[in-house]
């Protein structure tokens, strides 16, 4: 028998092949394209081929469409299970972003599933009805396959407390050590579906990031024998390989690819051949039936995105993301301005999350807002010291490196194994400078607040998004223990509310930051 394991991961609500930058935008990704491909592969499967499908998490958050269903029209929330049921997934995994809009949203989006949500390392609170089991056993033609579900254990480090109240998250590796041996005794084939990625280089085993427990994929394979296939996600990487003897996939994000692992079984139901690949969806049209199911929602989202909310006096368009990071930009100044107004502070930091952020047109629409601020972040105010601020700025300074021609580039650790542009911040309310010729950790050249040098013991209040405020992005100088107040309204709403009170916003280039090379 041939066993084919198909997986989607980190779809992030991109059902249609668009990034919503404009109404007629067309891309080579989207769940509806993946659905058509999965249907085709199932129909083409030979009589001795068994196709198993897994949805590997981060499904109901991340796009303007998911923001619309979370914040504007709750009546559309059942659409997600209607889609996954129609695709015919055999199992689903919780991603970290499943919790971003709270437990009510999660429950409503998962209601009515025809397949189980698996999580062996997550314990839900009493009364919750999201997780069905740690594993699922499927049987066909006498062959038994077990699917073990795992989710990154790092969720409490990012997520708002209210969103995960009563939930407990444990190490994926420790959970696998408990459950894989048990499952091995019950089935012929063990599949681990993990909404997490790899903390080490898959070939050399060298550490590729700080060992926090966010990603445990390499350790999982190294320490837990008996896994026949590993489905991963979370890092948005394109992975299809054999790692430590086990076929592994990770199909990027937005349904750019379908992960496909194939296992050939002999007469003893043992794996005799194995391979992994990523299936591109470039030439696959969206599924027609699911287009009909979702077209009403898509049209509503596009109409909502076209609504004007305010005007810009000056230029707030981003045409050169790297230059914006090196010298600041009126758009980033504006985001900091909104954060400071909402938190009543005069010190703030924000990030240019990715190179697709375009800033604002002269006439600002909801499309501009949700495409430029792509995360459902709320705000916190931290009481920190001058020493904390200096350490945070040194972390920001490590974002840059000088190449052999003395040109400024993004340092490798912010590009590999995945892009982490969102972990570099631009500050408002201070004046500062970096000397990139100096070693990492010693690059802060100057720092002043209200025209005076910042002292190490000086108390400061700073506005940050919640992710950064709890130390996310390798900022240990920030933590939940230092939060003194919160603004539990996500930034998209805060920005639109700001325009409601300030219909015309002037673009300002702060010039409070410089790089020396």
Q: Can you describe what's shown?
A:
This protein has 517 residues and is of the alpha/beta class. It has 2 domains: 2-301, Metallo-dependent phosphatases (Purple Acid Phosphatase, chain A, domain 2), CATH 3.60.21; 307-516, 5'-Nucleotidase, C-terminal domain (5'-nucleotidase,  domain 2, Alpha-Beta Complex), CATH 3.90.780.10. The strands form 9 sheets. Strands 4-3-2-1-13-14 form a 6-stranded mixed beta sheet, covered by helices on one side. The longest helix has 18 residues, at 288-305. The protein starts with a strand and ends with a strand. The model has no long low-confidence stretch (mean pLDDT 96).
Proportion of residues in extended strands: 25-35%
**CATH class assignment of the largest domain:** Alpha Beta
Structural shape: globular
Helix content: 25-40%
Q: Number of helix segments? A: 13
How far apart, in Å, are the first and last alpha carbons? 61 Å
CATH structural fold name of the largest domain: Purple Acid Phosphatase, chain A, domain 2
**Which runs of at least 5 residues are low in confidence (pLDDT < 50)?**
none
Number of domains: 2
Instruction: Report the radius of gyration as a whole number of Å.
Output: 24 Å
Structural class: alpha/beta
Number of strands: 30
Largest sheet: 6 strands, mixed
CATH superfamily of the largest domain: Metallo-dependent phosphatases
The largest sheet has its strands arranged as: 4-3-2-1-13-14
On the 0-100 scale, what is the average pLDDT? 96
**Level-2 CATH architecture of the largest domain:** 4-Layer Sandwich
């Amino acid at each position: 028998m041939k066993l084919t394991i198909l997986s989607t991961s980190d779809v992030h609500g991109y059902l249609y092949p668009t990034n919503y930058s404009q109404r007629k935008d067309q891309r080579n990704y989207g769940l509806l394209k993946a659905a058509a491909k999965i249907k085709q592969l199932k129909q083409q499967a030979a009589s001795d081929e068994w196709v198993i499908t897994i949805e590997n998490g981060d499904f109901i958050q991340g796009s303007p469409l998911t923001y619309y269903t979370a914040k504007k029209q709750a009546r559309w929330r059942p659409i997600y299970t209607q889609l996954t049921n129609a695709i015919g997934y055999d199992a689903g995994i919780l991603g970290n972003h499943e919790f971003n809009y709270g437990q009510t949203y999660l429950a409503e989006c998962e209601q009515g599933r025809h397949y189980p949500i698996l999580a062996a390392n997550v314990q839900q609170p009493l009364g919750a009805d999201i997780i069905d089991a740690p594993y699922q056993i499927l049987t066909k033609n006498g062959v038994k396959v077990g699917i073990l579900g795992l989710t990154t254990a790092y969720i409490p480090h990012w997520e708002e407390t209210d969103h995960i109240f009563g939930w407990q998250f444990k190490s994926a590796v420790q959970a696998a050590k408990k459950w894989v041996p048990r499952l091995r005794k019950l089935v012929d084939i063990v599949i681990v579906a993990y909404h997490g990625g790899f903390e080490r280089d898959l070939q050399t085993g060298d550490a590729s990031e700080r060992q926090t427990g966010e990603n445990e994929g390499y350790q999982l394979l190294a320490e837990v024998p008996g896994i026949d296939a590993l489905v991963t996600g979370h890092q948005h990487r394109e992975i299809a390989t054999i790692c430590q003897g086990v076929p592994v996939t990770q199909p990027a994000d937005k349904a750019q690819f379908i992960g496909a692992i194939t296992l050939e079984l002999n007469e003893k139901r043992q794996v005799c051949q194995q391979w992994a690949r990523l299936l591109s969806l470039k030439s696959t049209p969206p599924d027609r039936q699911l287009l009909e199911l979702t077209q009403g929602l898509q049209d509503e989202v596009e109409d909502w995105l076209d609504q004007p909310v305010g005007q810009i006096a000056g230029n707030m368009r981003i045409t050169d993301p790297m230059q914006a990071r090196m010298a600041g930009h009126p758009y980033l100044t504006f985001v900091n301005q909104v954060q400071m107004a909402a938190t009543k502070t005069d010190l703030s930091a924000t990030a240019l999350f990715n190179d697709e952020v375009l800033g604002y047109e002269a006439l600002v629409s909801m499309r501009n807002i949700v495409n430029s601020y792509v995360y459902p972040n709320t705000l916190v105010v931290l009481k920190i010291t001058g020493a904390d601020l200096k350490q945070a700025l040194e972390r920001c300074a490590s974002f840059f490196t000088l190449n052999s021609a003395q040109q400024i580039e993004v340092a490798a650790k912010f590009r590999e194994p995945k892009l982490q542009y969102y972990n570099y911040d631009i500050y408002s309310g201070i004046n500062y400078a970096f000397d990139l010729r100096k070693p990492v950790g010693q690059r802060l050249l100057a720092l002043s607040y209200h025209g005076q040098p910042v002292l190490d013991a000086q108390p400061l209040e700073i506005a940050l998004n919640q992710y950064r405020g709890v130390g996310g992005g390798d900022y240990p100088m920030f933590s939940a223990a230092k939060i003194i107040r919160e603004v539990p309204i996500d930034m998209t709403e805060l920005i639109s509310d700001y325009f409601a009170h300030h219909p015309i916003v002037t673009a300002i280039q702060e010039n409070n930051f410089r790089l020396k090379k």
